[in-house]
Write a structure and sequence with these properties.
about 550 residues, single chain, 16 strands, inorganic pyrophosphatase (n-terminal core), Diaminopimelate Epimerase, Chain A, domain 1
């Protein structure tokens, strides 16, 4: 494959050069994945699960309510089905139970827990739940924690832990998503079961399960390390002809009925539907969908997710407006952060925090007020940060005033008791001021390379550029500069006429474009149609058809 010079320059700017590295980047291969047994504690975990399967004993998979957690849970449930095992699952209600393990559920279901023992496998959670793990073990259970979140120093649960953030782990630095860890657990279990279940194992195609991995990794904004790039590329391929009825119904509900599936489809179409259910306290619907085997019921469940997403959009608009009314710009500049407590729905606090980061470029904590059963007040927060300022590090400095917290450098959740909230805010602001002031900002250009729209939108360029997928942290969608793009037609579109529909002149044909949020630029573009344009090629799905278009970032 001959790669045009501008795209070679783009690869080099991303640290990819030389024939071998370029080949590995454009054509990642599953055979290059690291061996499962390098993941610390995986062989022991697979052996323990195999014992429970052989003995016919109860297995409970405990997940999280976001895309990463629900896909990881569904992956294991579907994988256990291959061996005729109907594992139980539980996804906490975000609004009532909160994140992670909770001992109340086990106490409420104690009568159904067998006296001869049971196994709990956490996915995308559990690393911060040492006390609850001990309590489950006291009730006669064994626990395997699989997670990818940050590990608190000297506070690992006293059980088998699969987490690539352990420094002595062979996967350290690979930055797997929670569903990536679950996939490797399944791969290790397949090897463990090979001897006694040879016929079943020979029928299992692990690549089919990578569809779940692609969804969770992209939607959770996990860094696309070389290992994750291989997993996600394989998953995007697997989704096209998935054997899972629920996944197929979900794709169809998003208008994806044929052809390739891309990271944008997950980020803008699929992921928001799954997340919406969790935000509204209905993540169980996602699990029912992803494990459903009847096509008609699957279509009905997928439609529910679409309705949840519409409700979530309305809630977000309302809560963002509420948050914005409480903010003082001068205070934000002085504090170098934002802490908001207002009339915020807990399920959309994270989205509101993300929007506030986009608007103000400072770390943000958005609190929702919760009244507990005993009448006490607790504040549940969602936090988002900015480049080179770890939100987890900020919380580490305020830990004495936090009931519990966990997450990544860029996104986290926390719980603060009412009596500690004022002290927490003072300390958080103090450390945020220091961290934001001393951070080293990357000196980034607004665009990757200069390339005319008429050249980049040619079939040859687009075919090669599509091999740069998947996009996400560590491999952001490239932005191009055309210093003399000619707009031959432009008009406002959208409910509030806030977007621009554009047509650019090409060499042999014109190119359609869309500029989100650029509706107020219409008059100046019509007065001066030859423009310096920042853009990226993107695909447009409309009534089952897929076509390339120019997504205008600035013009």
């Amino acid at each position: 494959m001959k790669i045009p010079q501008p795209l070679i320059e783009l690869l080099e700017a991303r640290g990819v050069s030389g024939e071998k590295d370029i080949g590995n980047f454009l054509f990642p291969k599953l055979k290059d994945l690291p061996a499962p047994e390098l993941l610390k504690n995986l062989p022991e975990a697979a052996h323990l699960i195999a014992h429970y399967i052989d003995a016919g004993k109860k297995i409970i998979v405990w997940g999280d309510y976001d895309v990463d957690g629900t896909t990881a849970t569904a992956l294991l449930i579907q994988f256990f089905k291959e061996f005729g095992v109907k594992a139980e699952w539980h996804i906490p209600n975000r609004l009532k139970e909160g994140y992670g393990l909770n001992i109340e559920w086990f106490k409420a279901n104690e009568q159904t827990l067998p006296k001869e023992g049971f196994l709990v496998i956490t996915v995308d959670c559990g690393i911060s739940d040492s006390i609850i793990v001990d309590e489950i073990q006291e009730m006669g259970g064994e626990v395997i924690v699989t997670d990818h979140h940050s590990i608190k120093k000297n506070n690992l649960p006293n059980c088998l832990v699969l987490n690539p953030n352990q420094e002595e782990c062979g996967f350290y630095g690979y930055k797997l998503a929670g569903v990536g860890v679950a996939f490797y657990l399944a791969a290790g279990l397949k090897s463990e079961m090979q001897l006694n279940y040879e016929t079943i194992c020979s029928r299992i195609n692990l690549k089919q399960y990578l569809g779940f991995v692609a969804l969770g990794t992209i939607a959770d904004l996990v860094e696309l390390t070389p290992v994750n790039r291989i997993l996600v590329r394989g998953g995007l391929e697997a989704l096209v002809e998935t054997k899972f009825i629920g996944l197929k119904a979900l794709l169809q509900s998003c208008g994806i009925r044929s052809g390739q599936i891309h990271s944008e489809d997950i980020g803008f179409l699929i992921g928001p539907r799954i997340n919406a259910a969790g935000r509204l306290g209905r993540a169980g619907v996602v699990l029912h969908l992803l494990t459903e085997e009847d096509p008609q019921r699957a279509r009905s469940l997928a439609e529910k997710l679409t309705l949840f997403n519409e409700e979530r959009k309305k809630l977000t608009v309302s809560c963002l407006k509420s948050a914005l009314t409480t903010l003082d710009k001068e205070l934000i500049i002085g504090n170098k952060c934002i802490v908001v407590t207002g009339d915020i729905h807990l399920g959309v606090a994270g989205i509101v925090a993300s929007r506030l980061v986009e608007l103000n470029n400072v770390p943000v904590v958005v609190f929702a007020k919760k009244t507990c059963d005993d009448g006490s007040i607790t504040y549940i927060g969602s936090a988002r940060s900015i480049e080179n300022v770890s939100i987890i590090e900020l919380f580490n400095n305020c830990a004495e005033f936090i009931v519990k917290y966990g997450g990544h450098d860029m996104a986290a959740g926390l719980t603060v008791a009412a009596g500690c909230k004022q002290e927490f805010e003072k300390m958080f602001i103090s450390f945020a001021q220091k961290s934001v002031k001393k951070r080293v900002q990357a000196n980034r250009s607004k665009h990757d390379i200069t390339c005319p729209i008429s050249l980049l939108m040619s079939e040859n360029y687009l075919n090669i550029l599509s091999k740069f997928e998947p996009y996400g942290p560590g491999n952001e969608q490239p932005v191009f500069l055309d210093s003399s793009a000619c707009v031959v037609d432009s008009r406002k579109v959208g409910r509030g006429a806030e977007h621009l529909n554009l047509t650019f002149r090409g060499k042999f044909s014109n190119y359609k474009g869309i500029g989100f949020g650029l509706g107020d630029r219409l008059n100046e573009i019509q007065n001066n149609p030859t423009r310096t344009t920042l853009y990226t090629p993107t695909r447009n799905r409309f009534r089952g058809n897929v076509s390339w278009q120019v997504r205008v970032i600035d013009i």
